[in-house]
Every structure is written in C-alpha cells, then in structure tokens.
C-alpha cells in the first residue's frame, strides 16, 4: 500500500482524482488538492517540522508520552518507526502494511479508522521534554538545550501533574478529528513497550491563526484571537522569534523551535454574566470587530495608552515586554463538566518560540495583574524542544541521538 493514498486505494472518485489517475504524473497533484483550494497534504519532510507555521488546521490531538524503556537503542528504533509512520499518515497512507489485506492471523499494521479519509492536512510535530534529558540510562543529560529550562511557577497556577510534562510530545493537527486521533493512536501503538501515553488533549476551533489574510477565529469568550500573531510567512520575524539557531547553545536544535503548552480552564459561566463593556475592557479590543481600544478596525495599530493598565492585550503586547513575541497556535476544548454544573472548557494554549526564557516566560510574568485572570486558570503545562525537520531517510531527533 505504500506510495498510494487511502482515497485511491478505496477507489474513491472525484473529478480531481479521476483526472489525476488518467494523467499519470498528475496523480500526486490531484490527490494533494483539497476541495476548497488549500492542499490536503502538508509535506512531511523539510527544513522545519510541519505544524508550526502551517496554516492552523481545525482540530488537535496533543499527546505527551513518558519513556518506559531504559534502552537508548530501543527508543531510537521507535523514533525511526514513528518517522516512517508519520510520513505515511501525513500523506494519507496507512501505517506499514495497512489495515486490511495482511495475514489474517496477525493484527493489522494500521488500526483502520482513517481508511477512506483524505490526509486532511494532517501534521505531526514532535518535541522532547526536560524530563527526557534526566533519564540516566539514555545518556542525554549533556545534550539538554539551555532554552529547555523548566518553566517557573506563575502566580495563580494550579497545575495538575497528570496533565503536565512528559518526555516526548506529539502535536497532531488535521481538519478531520478522526485523522488526528488515528495518528496519535497509531504512534502510541507502535511505541508500546518503549513509551506510554502520560496525558493527552483534544482540541477544536483554532484560537489563533498564522494566516492574517484569513478570517480571525474566535475563542470561547467570543473574541477574535490571533490578530497580532506572527504570520507563518513572515520569514524575518520567524527567524528572530520562532526558529532556534545553531549559535543558541544546542546545535542539534538549529531550525527547530520550543513549544510551550498550557491547559487553561476558562470560567465561561462567570464570563457570560459579565457586561459587554467590561469584557471589552478586560481584553483591550472590541468584540465585534476585534479592533484595539479606541481604534476602528481589527488591524489598526494598538495604542497601549488607550487601554486599561490591566487589559490583557496591553500586558501581552511586545511593547511592554522588551519586544518578546511568540507564535500562538492554540485550540478550544470542552471536556464534559466538572461535577459542579460548570463546563470543563477552555483554551489549550500552544506557543512556539526560539527560547521560552525570552518568549513565553516574560510575557506570562507580565500577565500577573491581568484582569482576565479572574476568569481563567492554568491547570496543565508542558515545555518541549521540537527538533528541526527531517529529510528523506532521516528520523525525528536524529541530531539529538547522533
Ligand atoms: C503568555 C502568553 C499568553 C497567554 C497565556 C494568553 C492567554 C489567553 N489569551 C486570550 C485571549 C486573547 N489574547 C489576545 C492577544 C494576545 N495574547 C497573548 C499572549 C497570551 N495569551 C499575546 C502575545 C497577544 C497579542 C498581544 C499583541 O501583540 O497585541 C487577544 C487579542 C487578539 C490577538 O491579538 O490575538 C485575545 C482575545 C485568552 C482568552 C487567554 C486564556 C484563556
Ligand atoms: Fe492572549
């Protein structure tokens, strides 16, 4: 089945596919074309990992794993198997020999729930947590990047260890939740005996965009979120604020990035009883347009002096943070109720940066007096070093284990 997408295997039609099949060389392009224009397949190989500047997909399945083996060789083998599986799944192909057609007496290589589904712009992004470098038998202590420092405790944090940390993180993003879940499930299955899932989070409704020309999405407080984000095409800003460089203290991370995730509970019932004027003053932008306080349009320049001193945007703005900037890529979540009649809902905050010590940490410290803190609580946390992209024949983290 390798080299052939799931849609083609099942003989699904569609004008693009039919034309592509007839045209031979045109097949790959036809398979890659999404119905509404954007490509359905995001290339897996490249200088940087996909899923960082990639236009944000609709769904998330984030998983943090702990390493359960003491064998470095076994971990490397799993990372090699994961890389091959990730390359296949992001191209819309099943893992290994596929879900069907193999020996009837053995479990299939692929679990099967994505059969017939297109690649759905699936991206898989891997990161290594600080705890991985502390596992003595793996011999990685000297390779820990200085930028992969443990996050400090912030005022108001109520972090649940069962929803924090992890030796290895995988961010799966796709436009179809089944495709994202299938990807994480199959990596977990391949990793059996080497890694075990520590915690995971599903997300829907992106709350940030890396594509300023597209409509800005809204978060669960009803506000446009991502307006002032770093665009995925702003090369100079990305080099300055997102991509790690060879001289940053860990040459194996050059072209990679550091990921900070925070599970932030949003007390939406309290927010919903707050007046519109108060909501807008807390954020520092208006709800309808997303315009900064005192301005008319979403993209108008922020005038910090027009906002309350404790407005979220004023405190988070680079102007008050020594120019610190991060690339936000978060998703909303709702995970049932908390037993007190309130939805367990919020923002799964995701930010990529060149160095969390000069990105997330100072910004989050500045947010201490944020009025928004009355309506939110950080309950989960993680920081991970995401290595650069892999070339054909390479594997995730090969620079680290070299
Ligand atoms: C430490 C980083 C940040 C956390 C944590 C955070 C949580 C959080 N944010 C919103 C809603 C909005 N944030 C907005 C802007 C904004 N937020 C951060 C950082 C964190 N937010 C930054 C750097 C910025 C951009 C500031 C600027 O440069 O102007 C906005 C406005 C629209 C936008 O620019 O994105 C909203 C709305 C919530 C609800 C939340 C926690 C649940
Ligand atoms: Fe924010």
From TrEMBL:
* Source taxon at top rank: Bacteria
Task: Write down the EC number.
Answer: 1.11.1.-
Keyword match Cell membrane? no
Subcellular location(s) of the protein: Cell envelope
Matching entries from InterPro entries are given as:
Dimeric_a/b-barrel (IPR011008), Dyp_perox_C (IPR048328), Dyp_perox_N (IPR048327), Dyp_peroxidase (IPR006314), EfeB/EfeN (IPR006313), TAT_signal (IPR006311)
Pfam families of this UniProt entry? Dyp_perox_C, Dyp_perox_N
Instruction: Extract the signal peptide range.
Output: none
Where mainly found? other
Q: Where is the Dyp-type peroxidase N-terminal domain?
A: 49-204
UniProt family annotation: Belongs to the DyP-type peroxidase family.
Purpose: Involved in the recovery of exogenous heme iron. Extracts iron from heme while preserving the protoporphyrin ring intact.
In Swiss-Prot or TrEMBL terms, this protein is called Deferrochelatase
């Amino acid at each position: 089945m390798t080299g052939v997408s799931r849609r083609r295997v099942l003989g699904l039609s569609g004008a693009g596919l039919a034309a592509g099949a007839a045209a031979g060389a045109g097949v790959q392009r036809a398979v890659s074309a999404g119905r509404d224009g954007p490509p359905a397949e995001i290339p897996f190989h490249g200088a940087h990992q996909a899923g960082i500047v990639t236009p944000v997909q609709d769904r998330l399945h984030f998983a943090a794993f702990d390493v359960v083996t003491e064998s470095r060789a076994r971990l490397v083998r799993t990372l090699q198997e994961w890389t091959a599986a990730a390359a296949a799944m992001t191209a819309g192909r099943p893992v290994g020999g596929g879900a069907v057609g193999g020996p009837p007496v053995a479990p299939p290589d692929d679990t099967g729930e994505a059969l017939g589904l297109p690649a759905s712009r699936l991206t898989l992004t891997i990161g290594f947590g600080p705890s991985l470098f502390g596992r003595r038998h793996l011999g990685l202590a000297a390779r820990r990047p200085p930028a992969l420092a443990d996050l400090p405790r912030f005022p108001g944090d109520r972090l649940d260890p069962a929803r924090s940390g992890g030796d290895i993180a995988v961010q799966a993003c796709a436009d179809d939740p089944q495709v994202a879940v299938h990807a994480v499930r199959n990596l977990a299955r391949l990793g059996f005996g080497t890694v075990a899932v520590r915690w995971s989070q599903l997300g829907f409704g992106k709350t940030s965009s890396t594509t300023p020309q597209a409509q800005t999405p809204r978060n669960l407080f009803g506000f446009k979120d991502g307006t002032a984000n770093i665009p995925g095409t702003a090369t100079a800003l990305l080099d300055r604020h997102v991509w790690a460089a060879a001289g940053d203290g860990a040459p194996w991370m050059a072209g990679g990035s550091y990921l900070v995730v925070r599970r932030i509970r949003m007390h939406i019932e309290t927010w919903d009883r707050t007046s519109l004027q108060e909501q807008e003053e807390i954020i520092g932008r208006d709800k309808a347009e997303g315009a900064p306080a005192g301005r008319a349009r979403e993209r108008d320049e922020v005038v910090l002096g027009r906002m309350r001193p404790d407005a979220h945007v004023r405190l988070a703005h680079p102007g008050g943070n020594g120019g610190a900037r991060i690339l936000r890529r978060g998703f909303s979540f709702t995970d049932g109720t908390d037993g007190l009649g309130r939805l367990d809902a919020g923002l799964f905050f995701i930010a990529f940066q060149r160095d969390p010590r000069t990105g997330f940490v100072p910004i989050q410290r500045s947010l201490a007096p944020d009025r928004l803190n009355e309506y939110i609580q950080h309950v989960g946390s993680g920081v991970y070093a995401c290595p650069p992209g892999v070339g054909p024949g390479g594997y995730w983290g090969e620079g680290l284990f070299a």
